Amino acid sequence: MLHTNTSNQSLKQIGSREFKKMILAATCWLNEHKDYVDSLNVFPVPDGDTGTNMYLTVLNAAREIQNSESERVCDIAEALQQGALMGARGNSGVILSQLFRGIAHGLKNKNVMSAADLANALKCAYEMAYKAVMKPVEGTILTVARFVGDGAVEKAKKSDDIIEVLDAAIEEGRKALKKTPEMLPVLKEAKVVDAGGQGYIFLLEGALRVLKGQPVEGELKVYEGQKVKEPVYDAKKTSDKEIKYQYCTEFIIMSENVPLDKVREHLENYGDSLLVVGSKGITKVHVHTNNPGLVLEYALKYGPLNKIKIENMVEQSQERDEKQSLSKKPFGIVAVVAGEGFKEIFESLGVDEVVRGGQSMNPSTQDLVEAVERVNSDHVIILPNNKNIIFAAEQVKNISKKEIIVVPTRSIPQGIGSLMKIDPELNFSEIAKAMIQGLEEVKTGEITYAVRDSKVNSFDIKERDCLGLYNGDIQVVDKDCEKVSLELLDKMIDEDDFLITIYYGSNVSEDQAEKLRKKIEERFKNQDIELYYGGQPLYDYIFSVE
């Protein structure tokens, strides 16, 4: 458990150590409540991941501050915003990273933080976030952050106690959160408050709790001991001749009673780049070694192993060298895709790097940056293929030195359609422009199921109902998914459409998909019908209509 102030004395200033504890407590408190934040998703589809995205974003930031040895608050704040930017996942994660960026701006050149400094940082936070969003919408995390910042500023005029200022700021934020359904009709209809705003309140509550000396459950042990940094393998600096330990070995020990220090001390004899961290019955081990078998055999003494991964770094180095030796391409493409079938489809259409992700598993900005850097070209197009990933993709422009264009694809069919617009005779910007112009030519339908009872678009939805979405909006609801599929296509197709493409997901058999294809073929005789395996999770079928 994390504790700081156990007395009733006022708190006039905070140093780097206390600021770190605030951030770690905030991370842990959000972790404890992220499932609740996820449940606040307006639509009852199985991809409500605001809480998870915010947690993974701040978790990356928390890990970054752990690696800072500075005793200046401003340096911790800078590490916070940098870690959040690189770890940002989804729209909520990117907005959170911008809030942290504002906090860093407000604490610039500050060795310690006073109540007035905290208030200014929280004010700068919402100002920075508003600027980052092209069309700010009230009734979201932005509104909550604004009330928090303004509440902190007002309280700081009357008090120099940091706890009192943060307490008042949170109270104003809660008031704003309660009002979000009145600002956004879609929240009112779903009978929920804004998920991002709720996540932000949980973060601030965690920080306040540690200042008050109240327990914060759920902290990760990586925060308690030595500073830990994931090993980085730089192909530009390392040749296969310089690799002392050949096998990158990773696994998880599933046990409550793993003596971390003892395991760490023993495994140091087998290699380098050692990482041993644990939390709640899970211990992650990473080591570069020439004897992965001996490492695994030793680890088995403490419990069953999971997620074992062994990679030959010599081979990886040779592959990287071979790839770098090739002449650079005029341009490259990175696409975010969920499903093995879709991965193969996108690669067959010329995509250089596929980043695994999509609904409920948004990749981080860092995931996208790393994919861009692997592409053997100085000009890269990114296809997010999901509306919740576009914002994170846009952040890559500010990090990579390569020329980046984000084609704002909001669905897998749009991604595939945009790839069909590539004309190798055009230059980079002309190709991207053609891809963007073609986005509206593709209509997207999706078949999924409701994860809870809800009322949306006048539909009285029950848990496990089959849902038909047209370009992201729920249009059909029924217990029978075949009926939903056909009715959805009825709404999507007009007389000018000539092609219906069906992509079936990981929970659908080929026989089931073929049966639906025949039904669609019988009903829509004027369109060609194509069927492919997408392998996507959560969505049984994705339809593309052109």
List the helices and strands and how they pair.
Blueprint: E1 13-14, H1 16-39, H2 50-66, H3 73-87, H4 90-106, E2 113-114, H5 115-132, H6 141-156, H7 162-183, H8 185-190, H9 195-212, E3 247-254, H10 260-267, E4 271-279, E5 282-289, H11 292-299, E6 305-312, H12 313-325, E7 332-337, H13 340-348, E8 353-356, H14 365-374, E9 379-383, H15 390-395, E10 403-406, H16 412-419, H17 428-437, E11 443-449, E12 454-456, E13 459-461, E14 466-470, E15 473-478, H18 481-492, E16 499-504, H19 510-523, E17 528-533, E18 541-545
Parallel strand pairs: 7-8, 7-9, 9-10, 16-17
Antiparallel strand pairs: 1-2, 3-5, 3-6, 4-5, 11-14, 11-18, 12-13, 14-15, 16-18
Helix pairs in contact: 1-2, 1-3, 1-9, 2-3, 2-4, 3-4, 4-5, 5-6, 5-7, 6-7, 6-9, 7-9
Explain what you see.
The chain is an alpha+beta fold. It is 46% helix and 18% strand. The protein has 19 helices and 18 strands. The protein has helices at residues 16-39, 50-66, 73-87, 90-106, 115-132, 141-156, 162-183, 185-190, 195-212, 260-267, 292-299, 313-325, 340-348, 365-374, 390-395, 412-419, 428-437, 481-492, 510-523; strands at residues 13-14, 113-114, 247-254, 271-279, 282-289, 305-312, 332-337, 353-356, 379-383, 403-406, 443-449, 454-456, 459-461, 466-470, 473-478, 499-504, 528-533, 541-545. A 6-stranded mixed beta sheet has the order 15-14-11-18-16-17. Strands 4-5-3-6 form a 4-stranded antiparallel beta sheet. Strands 8-7-9-10 form a 4-stranded parallel beta sheet, sandwiched between helices. β4 (271-279) and β5 form a beta hairpin. α1 packs antiparallel against α2 (50-66), α1 runs parallel beside α3 (73-87) and α6 (141-156) packs parallel to α9. The model is unreliable at 219-241 (pLDDT under 50).
